[in-house]
Write a structure and sequence with these properties.
Belongs to the anti-sigma-factor antagonist family. GO terms for molecular function: anti-sigma factor antagonist activity. This is Anti-sigma factor antagonist. It is built from four helices and five strands. It is α/β, with parallel strands linked by helices. It has a single domain, classed as 2-Layer Sandwich (Transcription Regulator spoIIAA). A five-stranded mixed β-sheet has the order 1-2-3-4-5. α3 links the parallel β4 and β5.
Length: 112
Amino acid sequence: MKIYHRSVDDITILDLEGQITIGEGDVQLREAIHKLVEIGQKRILLNMARVTYMDSSGVGELMACLQHIQEHEGQFKLLNISKKIKNLLFIAQILSIFEYFNDEELAVASFN
């Protein structure tokens, strides 16, 4: 998986590309989130438009990222989740714990 960083105001947007699976994307995502929190960037928008697949490890990692950021008084939101991944989160009964958006402008505005 590849992770690209960009910022809009004080919001960090992580553009993900590839798969969030055990041993491939889950560790990369965790490390990226932890590094951002360490340097004080705690308003994070995860753009999943180019995520092609996510397994249960990826689901667990999303939950762990949300928890880590909330423990540090930050905000973590999802952007452009595919129907397939949305269904996976729904079946796992965790879709409702995430704020998610299909429009980047609205997602960025939601942090204010």
